[in-house]
Recover the amino acids of this structure.
């Protein structure tokens, strides 16, 4: 007969201040938290991510009602939420004021709306006119976007990028970057190959990946920083 | 140096890209470059300068019609060499002459 899940009982005891139950619960959920931390690998230190996950688990504990079912599935979104918060704080090392963040979104929208069918993007005065921002704020918004590091997007299959593995390998050879590319994750490496090896524009890559040009710009910048990290 | 050019001296070890990139963005706006060109000339500048200046640098930025030119004097040649394969994709013009590198965006 399978062993009954002890987490609801442990959680109930922990809620009432039973320290031992709390420790056991955290210990029991450690593998779950470690697995979740793997989703954010490279965006913050593993130890910090796991610590953030535990904070999420403890937060979940204060709100948990055993009638809601097993504790693990209940606690998972809390743990992920804390890890995401940590990853975002690391992603934006410079605190960006709310008005600049809003301006950055307006700039993104204007760029998407104004990009012509030929792929040519708007100028800064055009973005300013469309978004209702002054040019100085458009520049500030662009600068703030450049300072942010993007969270990883879902991996895009190679076939969706419109380039075969052979083409990408040939592109890498042309780039003559040697083993510097090996320090990149596969998606960053593909981006470098597409932009610099095959000469696709950010707009062309964006169309293939189904994301915005501004998003490609941020991913590319992050990849370049990673590539240059040890220089 | 023409009227309207911007000239910045950055001592070795001081913040470099964080100082130069806002100037690049502002002058790229004046040159009327498209957003992707603005983004990529800023990226090229970041790649060349790094967060902190690798040596004493003199940077001159100038707008001429629809183009922006960024001339950087004092970069160690090996730093430029390591980036030489990538830079031509980001800018419309690249000239390397000893310790002087000139990048240009726009026509």
């Amino acid at each position: 007969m399978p062993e009954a899940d002890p987490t609801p009982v442990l959680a109930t005891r922990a809620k009432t201040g039973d320290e031992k139950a709390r420790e056991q619960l955290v210990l029991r959920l450690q593998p779950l938290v470690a697995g979740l931390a793997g989703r954010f690998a490279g965006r913050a230190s593993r130890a910090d991510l796991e610590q953030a996950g535990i904070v999420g688990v403890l937060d979940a504990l204060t709100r948990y009602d055993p009638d809601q079912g097993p504790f693990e599935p209940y606690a998972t979104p809390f743990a992920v939420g804390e890890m995401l918060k940590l990853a975002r704080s690391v992603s934006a090392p410079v605190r960006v004021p709310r008005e600049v963040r809003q301006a950055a979104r307006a700039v993104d929208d204007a760029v998407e709306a104004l990009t012509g069918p030929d792929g040519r993007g708007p100028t800064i005065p055009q973005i300013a006119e469309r978004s209702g921002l002054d040019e100085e704020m458009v520049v500030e918004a662009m600068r703030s976007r450049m300072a942010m590091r993007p969270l990883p997007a879902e991996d895009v299959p190679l076939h969706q990028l419109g380039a075969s593995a052979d083409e990408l390998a040939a592109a890498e050879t042309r780039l003559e970057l040697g083993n510097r590319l090996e320090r990149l994750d596969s998606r960053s490496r593909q981006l470098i190959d597409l932009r610099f090896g095959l000469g696709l524009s950010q707009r062309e890559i964006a169309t293939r990946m189904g994301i915005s040009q501004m998003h490609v710009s941020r991913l590319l910048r992050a990849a370049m920083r990673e590539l240059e990290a040890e220089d | 140096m023409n009227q309207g050019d911007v000239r910045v001296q950055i001592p070795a070890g001081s913040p470099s890209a964080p100082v130069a990139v806002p100037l690049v963005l502002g002058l790229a706006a004046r040159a009327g470059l498209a957003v992707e060109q603005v983004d990529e000339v800023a990226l090229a500048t970041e790649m060349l300068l790094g967060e902190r200046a690798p040596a004493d640098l003199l940077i001159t930025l100038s707008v001429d019609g629809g183009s922006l030119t960024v001339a950087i004097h004092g970069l160690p040649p090996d730093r430029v060499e390591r980036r030489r394969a990538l830079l031509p994709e980001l800018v419309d013009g690249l000239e390397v002459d000893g310790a002087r590198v000139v990048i240009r965006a726009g026509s």
